[in-house]
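Researcher: We plan to redesign the surface later, but first we want a full-length starting point. Tokens attached.
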């Protein structure tokens, strides 16, 4: 009888230890994923800003705001402020604005729910 009780107690302790370990490992994996995704988000944001020649501070502000909302908007002056200095009368302005908007919208969609701050 004593051996059966000890065996049951050991099984119970081992089972709970394994369950606790699994929960910790799952949390560690999730944390590692979010850290990786946020690093990728930062890297891709920097590359987008650089490749399009955007105003760094304004672009990061616009992307951060859009990330919090989980969508990018063409309305208002936020998007325009990210663009390189160019007259709105310039025929390339509208094309550049549309290209930048599409890239940022795709970026926001890709990293939706990741969180993170753009530095």
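Model: Full-length starting sequence:
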């Amino acid at each position: 009888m004593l051996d059966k009780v000890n065996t049951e107690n050991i099984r119970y302790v081992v089972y709970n230890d394994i369950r606790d370990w699994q929960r910790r490992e799952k949390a560690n994996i999730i944390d590692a994923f979010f850290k990786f995704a946020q690093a990728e988000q930062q890297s891709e944001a920097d590359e987008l800003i650089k490749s399009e020649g955007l105003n760094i501070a304004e672009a990061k502000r616009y992307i951060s705001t859009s990330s919090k909302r989980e969508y990018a908007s063409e309305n208002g002056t936020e998007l325009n402020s990210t663009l390189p200095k160019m007259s709105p009368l310039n025929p390339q302005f509208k094309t550049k604005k549309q290209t930048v908007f599409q890239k940022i919208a795709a970026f926001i969609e890709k990293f939706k729910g990741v969180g993170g701050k753009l530095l």
